[in-house]
Amino acid sequence: GAVVSQHPSRVICKSGTSVKIECRSLDFQATTMFWYRQFPKQSLMLMATSNEGSKATYEQGVEKDKFLINHASLTLSTLTVTSAHPEDSSFYICSASPGLGETQYFGPGTRLLVL
Amino acid sequence: AQSVTQLGSHVSVSEGALVLLRCNYSSSVPPYLFWYVQYPNQGLQLLLKYTTGATLVKGINGFEAEFKKSETSFHLTKPSAHMSDAAEYFCAVSDSGGSYIPTFGRGTSLIVHP
After folding, report:
1. Pairing state between β B103-104 and B19-21
2. B46 and chain A: CB distance < 8 Å anywhere?
3. Is the sign of the CA dihedral B73, A109, A45, A35 positive or negative?
4. Cβ separation of A93 and B36 shorter than 8 Å?
5. DSSP B20
6. pLDDT by residue (tens digit) across A5-49?
């Protein structure tokens, strides 16, 4: 089956620093990747849709200058949390889809803790 | 617009008992429906999905779900619960005629007692 990886799996950083999270589709090309945020005991909240070679589409209320998304290739998308603050601490999950209308395959998630 | 309602944030069953996790959806177009499972500190794994065709869908780990248009439901069942089934389960709906981006329910935590 389709495999999506995320790196790192867990990161702790100081307030004010930036953190980059990578999402890779290992055995298929992903024209579209998605970034979600999940708070404890809650559902996934879609942050943005990332399309290879174009700007990401952000959901309402998500700061695009705060959460920088780059989809440089068909197998890699990155999410950079800039000037992280404690309220940015969360579980970030990416997913990738081989094409429009195809099933999304989810990465294992990245736990971010900002001190 | 679409939405998903999962009844019950927690469902507790005994090992070997029937598992029933409820999901009702709202969609203005024919929906695609999904069930995902999430184990602690992990991403989501697709259990099963309905797009078109047979309304009873069989998934992995012995789970199945039935699409009932008249009831706008897509409940997840498993005849006999196993301890390893304890996890968080998410129902999701996507728009078959548009963005295909799923909207997730709030999740149901399945607890399995020995």
Report:
1. unpaired
2. yes
3. negative
4. no
5. E
6. 999 999 999 999 999 999 999 999 988 899 999 988 788 899 999
